[in-house]
Amino acid sequence: MQIVIDRHSKIPIYRQIVDRIREQIVGGMLPEGFRLPPERRLAEALGVNRSTVLTAYRELKAEGLLHAHVGRGTSVHAPVPATRPPAGTGGVPWRQLFREGGHHVQDPVVRDLLELTERRDVVSLAIGLPAPELLPLHLLGTIFDTLVEEAGPQMLLHCPTEGHTPLRETLTRWLATRGIACSVPEVLVLSGSQQGLDLMVRALVDPGDLVVVEEPTYVGILPVLRAAQARVLAVPVDHDGMRTDVLEAILERHRPKLIYTLPTFQNPSGVEMSLTRRKELLELSARTQVPILEDDPYSELCYDGSPLPSLKALDSTGHVVYLSTLSKVLFPGMRLGFLVGPRPLIRRLALLKQGIDLHSSSVGQRLLDRFIRDGHYEPYLATLRTAYAERRDTMDQALSDGEVSGLAWTKPRGGFYFWCRLPREVERSRLLNEAADAGVAYLPGDACFAEPPADAFVRLNFSYSSPERIRDGVVRFLESVHRAARAQRTQAADRVGMKPVV
Amino acid sequence: MQIVIDRHSKIPIYRQIVDRIREQIVGGMLPEGFRLPPERRLAEALGVNRSTVLTAYRELKAEGLLHAHVGRGTSVHAPVPATRPPAGTGGVPWRQLFREGGHHVQDPVVRDLLELTERRDVVSLAIGLPAPELLPLHLLGTIFDTLVEEAGPQMLLHCPTEGHTPLRETLTRWLATRGIACSVPEVLVLSGSQQGLDLMVRALVDPGDLVVVEEPTYVGILPVLRAAQARVLAVPVDHDGMRTDVLEAILERHRPKLIYTLPTFQNPSGVEMSLTRRKELLELSARTQVPILEDDPYSELCYDGSPLPSLKALDSTGHVVYLSTLSKVLFPGMRLGFLVGPRPLIRRLALLKQGIDLHSSSVGQRLLDRFIRDGHYEPYLATLRTAYAERRDTMDQALSDGEVSGLAWTKPRGGFYFWCRLPREVERSRLLNEAADAGVAYLPGDACFAEPPADAFVRLNFSYSSPERIRDGVVRFLESVHRAARAQRTQAADRVGMKPVV
Fold first, then answer.
1. Cβ contact (<8 Å) for A198 and B114?
2. How many CB atoms lie within 10 A of CB A478?
3. What interface predicted TM-score (ipTM) does this complex get?
4. How many CB pairs under 8 A join A and B?
5. How far apart are CA B78 and CA B30, in angstroms?
6. What mean pLDDT do residues A363-378 have?
7. What pLDDT, on the 0 to 100 scale, is given for residue A89?
8. Which domains does chain B have, with CATH numbers?
9. A35: β partners
10. Which of A376, B268, B299, B391 is the most core-located residue (most Cβ within 10 A)?
């Protein structure tokens, strides 16, 4: 976005800003969804008052060219170009055509976060990405060249829906080293582990069916369940993981289709389910015949000792379906995951997958296969563990240094996230605004609950940014918490007619 | 599969075959789904009678270690390994848990075809793949290296759900050269064009909703519609494409959610919808407000002159949603497609896609983007057109040379396929068996119909194999037709107590 202000012009500055932005929107230089800088930042850049930018943005909103979401800033709402049919010629009323179930798919929070990570002025503690500078990029380039020589054009052609067979063999051997015994026909390669959630729900869940999730839970499961019109039963997570006593009570009254859990270094809470709970959970599942979907993207990233065995490794009755990915470690953008389950299930999921995307990227599968088989995986993982442990410690220290009273968190033993409970007086939407202004992004905890919780939480990621950026980001974040709390106290004081006590 | 026969042993030969195959299945050397050679072929290889192999296979079937499908040969049905829970310990009754809608997803024909193309002894005229030896593999290797240098680790990270923005810009410019005016927010990048079918149906179709398809239609749309529990209205295709008079009659009585058409070099029929029909179709859609999903993977591959303009290019009222892919030209295994439609639809589809696979492969998108932007696409396409035109002419000539009476086909102007009507006396399942024995694979026409048609058709692909293989494959295919017809005549003659007239 380019704005040049003419200070000698008779046209008011706010109007000049309006005109320049409008030109760029109508001219197509600022596309639909383009996020404008926060008012304060643009004001600083142009050397004008914040209120001037505020007025300009307000005017553009009134014109319908911008829209604002609390906490997500202001973005372009571009007009339909002239080539589209004008009103009255019978354009398709798309919104009326969308199907019933589809109306529940409305939460754009993850998509917004994906966009945010592309902005350089924002310290992103929001999204769960690996450290870009540590990715084995040149190694992958070399493997690509090797594949071109060895596999030839086959690498660009189709592969079976279940996955490239050598990769499935490699995964089987790799899983064995993690205590999971399975054979090739029990492994399904996925286009990212998100696809595993979608496939499982599509295979099992009819509208109105019950599904157990943790509370909090992985943010990406909720839209899938909403789209399927599932009824969600939320079981709270404490320091030992999912509360099996609550689950047991639920299973006495209901017969859900599935128990979804992320037991190791949970996203978002960082909690590692205790061994006792793991066994209780398995026992409950076997007794009630309700299968478990174990999502396990983080157990490789344990920074103190070894992780507990997965539910799948402990499972002697075949009730656990295991979902994982190496995306969190290797290359999230390649979209590869895998699922381990009994053959009738794999066959059903493969038939569904065939209608969805035929198969996952052959090239990506071959790259991953060679990366593991040529022995690059374990050394790379060791590098990651060292680097992420440092980042985790940095974030822990920075949170402590801030000395914000009422802010609570636990240092996780593995994974990607700190889960912080906010001080009582901090209002959630106010914090989002303050943080956006301060140039720091986090995941609002509410996104991880089926129903908004009483306490407010945030999830902070420590894998993506350098230790310096993390420290900077945490400082910005804690300042935002401070400001939000102060503003809240001021407002509360105003309301009862008192001066704030600072 | 390795079988050594001891001719001096007292153990009957059929039993030796049974024992060797059983050992290899139980030992895991022959995995689930492994396709055994046709009886005749194995008999030849071992130098035994066909009936010996037949007996051995029958025994293994009785033991539950093999299963046979008419026309799809015999494959391994491996026993559950000992690590799985034995019966009675409360294993999950998966088949009972599968959801209602899921029961309709049963057709494994495409998956079987994917597997078949991996077998070297079979001439595959079945699947729609580009010529492997013409793929620009080394060029892609070079582009990968360039991306490593230029984009760095970003190429492995996430991108927006709607697609890598530079690729969307590139596609927009490319579409403009094909007469389709659209802006970036109207383009959604897909994980293969199959995903476009799935997303559209998920966004629009509730159980019981009506969807119009062509008859015959693309084989991959039918399982998607079945899974969504849509009711299918089939409109016949003649030499000018979809019969708009039939469609009009349907639209007078019904209000379908969508009209699905593949108007240019249709898969499977090869038919190019005439300009008159295109205009009639657009007029019907605009008048009745039923949107069109135009699937257009083949218009780039026109071998005589230029293709007719797409429906989307002719669309003045915004009723056409355009779906395409460069997979048929560049790299099917990378799974990339794209869809062009109005913004409210793109937004809805992107929200659905977010829950399905978050986004399509970043690496693949960047490779495709650079391939087009660096000017490699048009020269590569020219090479393909020349090569495929030759293959098409070869197949046409080989079909003519066979002089099989009652076999009818039209030489297509573009695309990948010949669509042949079989002689009346050829029984479909018998032909499948004969062709499997002869080592040639085709797509049975029935797969392209919602309801089995009166006439029998086959689809033959001419892009994948070399001209020599095509000629060989057509000869094998025509021999199978001959044999099937003769066997049918013999049977008919037997039935009325007459000697066959040969």
1. no
2. 20
3. 0.72
4. 320
5. 8
6. 94
7. 43
8. 13-85 (1.10.10.10), 109-124+379-495 (3.90.1150.10), 136-376 (3.40.640.10)
9. A75
10. B268
